[in-house]
């Protein structure tokens, strides 16, 4: 018997350094102390769902190294089933992140083990799964294969189009929910386009996250604006992944999409009030549920 929620996606160690300015080619610049934390869109999404109490597994890959162990520990501490996290011969993925005083992040990702996730890895993993949620820091053919297999098995399919990548029309048509932020929505349908145009690409529904403004749920019979609670934002890293994990957890519990999005904005808003990605995600008790 598998978990209710299956996350297909990346696990990365985030190495974050504060810098006054970024080095130009051939230049050396001294920065602050390195802060190491567990990250990657797949692992973040799974941890967000796990902390809310969902029965969730991550399908992914890490290296046989200390960063891989850090990620597995963080997943397990959140109650995530790691039985489908493969140990690859390649090193654990790493995101090298520099942050300048204006708060701007600049990120270089070395995918490492995440690149070794193959289409064959997603066969035979869908028994008992209610909702699959995938994101795109793992190879596109693997994600497209996972979407096809999940749809065949009657699993609800949620795709977080992050980072933005060109999906085939066949894959888009198999999505129950396409999850994008404003930039990804504009990338798909052109700047200023009506969010309803997202459905013309094939998914049965779409959710567009709008940062502090919350989210919009687009369904064939109408569009619903979901306001975010007003909070003092400290660090928005991983807010989109918190939203994705919470949305999947609620859908697996049988919530309709608008109710799931209402809970997801509360979860994501809570996450921006604390530093980091995974450490900032709330439990149901944190939300007062
Ligand atoms: P990120 O790349 O930072 O993970 P994103 O660009 O994928 O995020 P956003 O639309 O910026 O996605 O944020 C996702 C969700 O997080 C929003 O729908 C909202 O619920 C919450 N959120 C983000 N920023 C804020 C904020 N300043 N105040 C309250 N909620 C926020």
Automatic annotation (TrEMBL):
InterPro entries associated with the record? Carboh/pur_kinase_PfkB_CS, PfkB_dom, Ribo/fructo_kinase, Ribokinase, Ribokinase-like
Q: Which residues form the active site?
A: 241 (proton acceptor)
One Pfam short name = PfkB
For this UniProt record, give its keywords in alphabetical order, as a comma-separated list: ATP-binding, Carbohydrate metabolism, Cytoplasm, Kinase, Magnesium, Metal-binding, Nucleotide-binding, Potassium, Transferase
- Which reaction is recorded as catalysed by this protein? D-ribose + ATP = D-ribose 5-phosphate + ADP + H(+)
| CDD domains hit by this protein | ribokinase
Activity regulation, per record: Activated by a monovalent cation that binds near, but not in, the active site. The most likely occupant of the site in vivo is potassium. Ion binding induces a conformational change that may alter substrate affinity.
Domain spans labelled Carbohydrate kinase PfkB:
4-283
Q: Does the keyword ATP-binding apply?
A: yes
Which positions bind K(+)?
A: 235, 237, 271, 274, 276, 280
Domain of life, per UniProt, equals: Bacteria
What does the note accompanying the cofactor annotation read? Requires a divalent cation, most likely magnesium in vivo, as an electrophilic catalyst to aid phosphoryl group transfer. It is the chelate of the metal and the nucleotide that is the actual substrate.
Q: Which GO terms describe its cellular component?
A: cytosol
Q: Which GO terms describe its molecular function?
A: ATP binding; metal ion binding; ribokinase activity
Q: Which residues bind ATP?
A: 181, 209-214, 240-241
For activity, the cofactor(s) needed are: Mg(2+)
UniProt: substrate binding residues: 12-14, 40-44, 137, 241
Pathway participation? Carbohydrate metabolism; D-ribose degradation; D-ribose 5-phosphate from beta-D-ribopyranose: step 2/2
Write down the HAMAP family for this protein, in alphabetical order. Ribokinase (MF_01987)
The protein here is known as Ribokinase
Q: Which organism is it from?
A: Amycolatopsis rifamycinica
């Amino acid at each position: 018997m598998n978990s209710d929620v299956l996350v297909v996606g990346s696990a990365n160690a985030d190495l974050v350094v504060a810098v006054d300015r970024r080095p130009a080619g051939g230049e050396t610049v001294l920065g602050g102390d390195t802060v190491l934390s567990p990250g990657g869109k797949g692992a973040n999404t799974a941890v967000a769902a796990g902390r809310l109490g969902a029965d969730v597994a991550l399908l992914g890959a890490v290296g046989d190294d200390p960063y891989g162990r850090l990620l597995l520990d963080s997943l397990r501490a959140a109650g995530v089933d790691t039985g489908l996290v493969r140990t690859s011969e390649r090193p654990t993925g790493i995101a090298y992140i520099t942050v300048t005083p204006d708060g701007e992040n600049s990120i270089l990702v070395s995918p490492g083990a995440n690149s070794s996730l193959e289409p064959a890895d997603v066969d035979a993993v869908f028994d008992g799964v209610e909702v699959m949620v995938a994101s795109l820091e793992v190879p596109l053919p693997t994600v497209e294969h996972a979407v096809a297999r999940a749809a065949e098995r009657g699993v609800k399919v949620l795709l977080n189009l992050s980072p933005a990548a060109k999906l085939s029309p066949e894959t888009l048509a198999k999505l129950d929910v396409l999850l994008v932020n404003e930039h990804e929505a504009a990338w798909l349908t052109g700047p200023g386009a009506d969010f309803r145009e997202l459905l013309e690409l094939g998914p049965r529904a779409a959710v567009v996250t709008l940062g502090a403004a919350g989210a919009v749920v687009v369904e064939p019979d109408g569009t619903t604006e979901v306001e975010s609670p007003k909070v003092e934002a400290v660090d928005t890293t991983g807010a989109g992944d918190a939203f994705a994990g919470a949305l999947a957890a609620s859908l697996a519990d049988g919530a309709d999409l608008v109710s799931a999005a209402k809970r997801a904005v509360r979860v994501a808003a809570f996450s921006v009030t604390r530093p980091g990605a995974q450490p900032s995600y709330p439990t149901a008790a944190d939300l007062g549920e």
